[in-house]
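Data deposition worksheet. Section B asks for the primary sequence of the deposited chain exactly as it was used as input, without tags or linkers unless they were present during the calculation. Section C holds the resulting structure in token form. Section D is free text for depositor observations; keep each observation to a single sentence. Incomplete worksheets are returned to the depositor.
Section A, Depositor: J.P.
Section B:
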Amino acid sequence: MDVKSVAQLRALLFEMEKSLGLAELSQNEKDVLYAINQLAKSDANLVKSDQIRSHPLVSEIPSASFHRALKSLLKRGLVSHAPETKARSYIVNAELQV
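Section C:
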């Protein structure tokens, strides 16, 4: 793989993000959202905060930035607190689940 191939993939990803309405999110917000989506494959799509924090897309984000990104995703309605669970459990809203 070369840089040109990566550039083409990046352009394709940008177009996909635009079509989903995700282009206005910060990179940290996107990375947290993508991590949650990848992790939400079992347990009724429930993902715990510590699982998100340890995901490779998110693990290098400073803690304060991670929490700001997660709070923003909650406020935008892209992620919700999991119902009937303890704190720090999240679900992706149905229209964004993959």
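Section D:
Residues 63 and 85 are 23 Å apart (CA to CA).
The helical segments are 3-20, 27-39, 49-54, 63-76.
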